[in-house]
Design brief:
Helix content: 25-40%
Number of strands: 10
Strand content: 15-25%
Shape: globular
Structural class: alpha/beta
Distance between the termini: 15 Å
Number of helices: 6
Oligomer: single chain
């Protein structure tokens, strides 16, 4: 796992946007398609807004979701709403290239299985997403893999559904999907994340983020989040 520390959240956002854009250009040149899995969070919205200004072959970019709250389509807490505002309103991504998690379905298990098939159509069977962007919570969660939730034990499906967490159940990518990613990029900012980040870089399996075993992972963090790291 590589670690890059920047002065502030804005610098983290700009660097993250540049990394995604570079990965997109490389994937499209090599394979004709780039699949990005996007998470939520305050700094990521800055990052996606910066990404919209990068030179990217948008017609060949497909965007999937890492996780989403199970709530109404017009609920402003939806990650999809922020993703549309930050990126899709400013970049010429074809509408059909955005693949939203079907969290409004009555049968969530069937909806998760359907989303798994979407991932397979885009990224192979089993799906290997080109780049997965992840956040990190103060409790060590990432995606919607939260401490103590049964979804942590899903080992045979790329998509699962969590129990209630901070007021909502969530649909989420699981460890199998994250571990197979071509690249993982953690975006971590804020002093409240410092203890969790120190455990993440040590691959501490006691926190959900520490259990990820993707071959290629980078953490981009600000100085506040890196405050408990030691040389």
């Amino acid at each position: 796992m590589k670690l890059r520390v920047f002065s502030d959240a804005e610098s983290v956002a700009r660097h993250g946007a540049a990394l995604i854009a570079d990965a997109a250009r490389g994937a499209v040149k090599e394979r004709g398609r780039f699949v990005l899995a996007a998470s939520g969070g305050r700094t990521p919205w800055l990052m996606f807004r910066a990404l919209a200004d990068e030179p990217v072959p948008w017609e060949a970019v497909h965007i999937v979701q890492v996780d989403e709250r199970i709530t109404a389509a017009d609920d402003p807490v939806r990650n999809l709403a922020h993703l549309r505002d930050a990126l899709l309103a400013h970049a010429p991504v074809p509408p059909e290239n955005l693949h939203a998690m079907p969290v409004e379905a009555d049968d969530l298990a069937a909806a998760g299985a359907a989303y798994a098939r979407t991932l397979e159509a885009l990224a192979g069977t089993p799906p290997r997403i080109d780049l997965v962007h992840l956040g990190l919570g103060p409790d060590g969660h990432t995606a919607s893999l939260v401490p103590g939730d049964p979804v942590l034990e899903v080992a045979d499906q790329p998509v699962g559904v969590s129990g209630p967490y901070q007021g909502h159940r969530r649909m989420t990518l699981t460890y199998p999907a994250l571990d197979r990613a071509g690249e993982l990029m953690f975006v971590v900012t804020g002093a409240e994340k410092a203890a969790a980040l120190a455990r993440l870089v040590q691959h501490d399996p006691a926190i959900p983020a520490g259990r990820i075993r993707a071959a290629r992972a980078v953490v981009i963090a600000d100085r506040a989040a890196a405050g408990e790291l030691h040389d």
